[in-house]
Amino acid sequence: MSSKFGPDNTVDENFGLEYKPDKVVKVIKKDGSLENFNVQKVIDAVGKSAYRALTKFTDEEKRHICQTVIDKVNELGEQEIPIQIMHNIVESALEDVKPIVAKSYRDYRNYKQDFVRMMDDVYKKSQSIMYIGDKENANTDSALVSTKRSLIFNQFNKELYQKFFMTTEEIQACRDGYLYVHDMSARRDTMNCCLFNVAEVLSGGFEMGNIWYNEPKTLDVAFDVIGDIVLSAASQQYGGFTVPEVDKILEPYAEKSYKRNVEKYTKLGVDGETAEAQALADVKKEFEQGFQGWEYKFNTVASSRGDYPFITVTAGIGTGRFAKLATITMLNVRRKGQGKKECKKPVLFPKIVFLYDENLHGPGKELEDVFEAGVECSAKTMYPDWLSLTGKGYIASMYKQYGKVISPMGCRAFLSPWYERGGMHPADEADSPVFVGRFNIGVVSLHLPMILAKSRQENKDFYEVLDYYLNLIRQLHIRTYAYLGEMRASTNTLAYCEGGLLWGQMQPHSKQAD
Question: What's 491's DSSP letter?
Fold first, then answer.
């Protein structure tokens, strides 16, 4: 590609651009050296910026950018141009074509100065973490070496997110307090909260860490394997990790243990009634030890993120014998607490959410004993949380219409419906929503009182100002969706390859958006 620019009518054979053969443009670099600057270098530079902005230029757009650069250079009439001015020329050309790429170009060309500032901020924060600690997240013990490392990386990742992902308008809205983007330290890497489909992962076996796990054949093994699944999968995301309706997940494995134990005692010559009673007692013991094991594991074993994942389980509407036993035992284990005999106290994780159905729970109802166990646990420990499925509101309406439970992701967030065939809207009356196996990609909070005050101060309609900030959030989520969609399924194989998430039977090399 020629490096000669000019106003005459000579046409470049590759781009069809005008240049002057007897004029060679040289760029003065910051160190004072000179370098030829040609059209191909323009194309390379803007192409890299477009890639970082997750977009591409058409040939016509490339031609327009290059011609604009040539015209600007010709106007200057100089043979040697400072690099800063050349950058400004290219940036101006990009603004005409794709402003989002112009921002990417501007951000990247200033990266050296920005990195100096960023690293200084990270260093100051790292010193604070190393010697003082960090109390931003109660689930992270900043006294641990592994947690310190994670917190320092998170601070660096947060700086990168603000610099290279957020727009100027978004950053300003956050600085002014109108928006708060949660979890900036992790949003470039992975997804947020989820409702993980543990039953699908267990079914037929699965692969984790290059090791094949057969589907459990007993309840105690199911508890161990589920604990491993939860810690492994939760470490590949941030936010809450929920195992929905855990009583129904454990029920078939309790049935397997019961039948196995009955067969074992029968072979030993024990009469049928005694064998069944002892087998049931063994299953109860497995439930107690399993739930106790979860409480120890989830509150003492930090994930690879350096924190204790916010794990939630929901239960309470399983009507089978072992589903009821699972919920009652889980509540009793939580009520009794863990620790030394004389000073036991309830643990934090897994957070228990009781699914309340007025048609199943209460005096004389099918699950009266399960309800009583929940009330007794609440009276002693302030656990579980109660989620009404038959009252009023969105959660109850979905349960009444479709029989589908919307478990909370962590403790607060609830998914909007996604229909099996229609997507965001039902294809027909027979279409049914899916909730288990889904997730969100991040949270942004709005400061409504400040937005109201801003609208009054500027004499604008409140909803006009609100729409501005809502659109900022919408565009941020759209970019996040596109960005994460380019990542490979191998980033979280349990979720994307082993069935933990909806349509999660992908090949490791496939993109998450496929």
Answer: G
Confidence at residue 151, expressed as pLDDT on a 0 to 100 scale = 84
- Residues with Cβ within 8 Å of 142's Cβ and at least 6 positions away in sequence, in order, are 129, 133, 134, 135, 148, 151
- Tell me what pLDDT residue 20 has: 44
Burial class (CB in 10 A: 0-12, 13-18, 19+), 260: middle
User: Which letter does DSSP use for residue 18 in this model?
Assistant: B
Beta carbons of 505 and 499 less than 8 angstroms apart? yes
In whole angstroms, give the CA distance from residue 155 to residue 168: 20
Give the model's pLDDT for residue 191: 93
Angle value at C-alpha 465, between 460 and 468, nearest 5 degrees: 145
Task: Evaluate whether 94 touches 50 at the Cβ level (below 8 Å).
Answer: no
pTM of the full predicted structure? Answer: 0.78
Q: How many CB atoms lie within 10 A of CB 202?
A: 22
Give the pairing type, strands 241-243 and 194-195: parallel
Half-sphere exposure in the Cβ direction for 309 (13 Å, CA): 33
What does the pLDDT read at residue 4?
37
The confidence score (pLDDT) of residue 22 equals 42
DSSP-based three-state secondary structure for 19: coil
Q: Cα(70)–Cα(73) distance, rounded to whole angstroms?
A: 5
Tokens (6 digits) for 234: 């939760």
β-strand pairing of 311-315 with 351-356: parallel
CA–CA separation, 497 and 488 (whole Å): 10
**Torsions phi, psi for 313 (to 5 deg):** -125, 145
Could you give the CA distance from residue 3 to residue 329 in angstroms, rounded to a whole number?
78
List the beta bridge partners of residue 419.
423, 433
Report, as ranges of residue numbers, the positions in the chain whose pLDDT lies below 50.
Answer: 1-23
Q: Which of 291, 203, 216 is nearest to 255 (CA)?
A: 216
* Residues 6+ positions from 435 with CB-CB distance below 8 Å: 195, 244, 404, 405, 406, 407, 415, 417, 418
At 241 the three-state DSSP class reads strand
| 8 A C-beta contact, residue 374 and residue 365 | no
